[in-house]
Amino acid sequence: MLGHVLDALLRLLHPLVPFVTEELWRALTGEPSVMIASWPAVADGYAGDRAAEEEILALQELITEVRRFRSDQGLKPGQRVAARLGLARTALAAHEPAIRSLLRLDDPSESFAPTARLAVGEATIEIDTAGAIDVAAERRRLEKDLAAARKEAAQATAKLGNEQFMAKAPEDVVVKVRSRAAQADADITRLSAQLAALPAG
């Protein structure tokens, strides 16, 4: 069994570390070269672990959304903030220490007062950003980004409303303009929500 695992592993690693895997594979199998060996295939009947796949996808979504929120709020990557994680009814509950470490989230104190709440799938995250960001500077940044998003939305909408443009433009160009308009609308919604969620100050 160990030989079978090593054989497959050496074939997979060969493009990354060719000289080492070549020597080890020859010693293991006695064959002339791993370079001409067939690529390992998934065993017949392997259905995968759907629950594990869904757990990983949920974890990725949670980490992505919290990191996006931190970035949007102007928090530095290494800056720690207090947060309450609502993972009790999810498969991610067992991973709370790792999630806190990855996202730089401290345990909430008795005086914890959340300034923002995120819902990601079945999980909820309450974060206290008070004192962690320069609210005035963040408000200026968000207002600038919101103005740019509104300008982009207006330009894309004007193009889409122009009959001459719609009649002459290739389909792929029209699709790109529609995509820009949709992205600008999504940005306006997101930035408006962030502005509304900023603490007073």
Automatic annotation (TrEMBL):
Cellular compartments per GO CC: cytosol
Biological processes, Gene Ontology terms: valyl-tRNA aminoacylation
Coiled-coil ranges from the UniProt annotation: 132-159
Domain Valyl-tRNA synthetase tRNA-binding arm: 134-198
Methionyl/Valyl/Leucyl/Isoleucyl-tRNA synthetase anticodon-binding domain location: 2-81
Protein name as it appears in the record: Valine--tRNA ligase
Organism: Sphaerisporangium melleum
Pfam family, one: Val_tRNA-synt_C
SUPFAM superfamilies in UniProt: Anticodon-binding domain of a subclass of class I aminoacyl-tRNA synthetases (SSF47323), tRNA-binding arm (SSF46589)
Catalysed transformations (reactions): tRNA(Val) + L-valine + ATP = L-valyl-tRNA(Val) + AMP + diphosphate
GO molecular function: ATP binding; valine-tRNA ligase activity
Record family assignment: Belongs to the class-I aminoacyl-tRNA synthetase family. ValS type 1 subfamily.
Enzyme class: ligase
EC number: 6.1.1.9
